[in-house]
Amino acid sequence: MSPFWGEVIGTMILIVFGAGVGAGTSLTKSYAKDSGWIVITIAWGLAVTLGVFAVGSISGAHLNPAVTIGLALNGSFAWGDVPGYILAQMIGAIIGAALVFLQYLPHWKATDDQGTKLGVFATSPAIPHTFSNLLSEMLGTFMLVLGLLYIGANEFTKGLNPFAVGLLIIAIGMSLGGTTGYAINPARDLGPRIAHFLLPIPGKGPSNWGYAWIPVVGPILGGSLGAVFYKYMFSGTISTSFWVVLVANIVVLVLAYVLGEKKQSEMDSSKIAV
Q1: For residues 139 and 222, is the Cβ–Cβ distance under 8 A?
Q2: Residue 189 neighbours by CB under 8 Å, 6+ apart
Q3: Among 17, 101, 239, 254, who pairs with 47 as Cys (CB 3.0-4.6 Å)?
Q4: pTM for the whole thing?
Q5: Could you tell me which Pfam families the record lists for this protein (predicted)?
Q6: Tens digits of per-residue pLDDT, 55-95?
Q7: What is the pLDDT of residue 270?
């Protein structure tokens, strides 16, 4: 199997189990309904673990564009392979989301709430706040990529590494995921969001494209910073990419804050006018 298909299959596995637990815990008449956040975070951790077990020896099991870009910035992955990996991850995510749709086919019609249906496929903020939502995704993915690199620097008994990665995902979900649903992966959010847009889901609402940029831009920026930060702090190597990525993170956060405050001000003004 080629690395391309490894990433397709690995990301598909990730989404089948990850979005699957979202469907099981939220859709009407599912036996797992209302199982709660602990179940969701553990299942996502296992989803990553199983995806890594499946294709780690084939593609390295990035399963995440933020990881692929971060490793390229870190110098441990060829830039020429980045576009193919990201394409494969997107394809796998869409296929995985479509399989979850089919698995819970009668439950979509039984579920009235449009937001619940979208939540199976894509993330959304607990409290909409552009700056905070973006920062949440950046920090979560910073910890993800940094964690992957320091886990990789340790020697494990053969086959144990994927479990350590799964524990990292669980920790991020439990500690940092309550704000935005911790996409921490552009393919994990954008791929299923596209599937939600395309699939004939009964009674579905909009796919919330206005928010969709945050779980794409945030993870890419945060993951990139995690990679160059690791190289600088743990390896003692500093490069131009470190400063470029750091400045990019700061600039985007500042812009998000300014635009978010402007949007809030306009909303407040409209409420006063009414």
Answers
A1: yes
A2: 122, 123, 183, 212, 215, 216
A3: 17
A4: 0.93
A5: MIP (PF00230)
A6: 999 999 999 999 999 999 988 999 999 999 999 999 999 99
A7: 63
The first and second tokens of residue 90, run together, are 């997107």
CATH 3.40.50.150 for domain 3-273, yes or no, is: no
Write down the pLDDT at residue 235: 74
d(CA 187, CA 177): 17
Q: Give the tokens for residue 145.
A: 């990529």
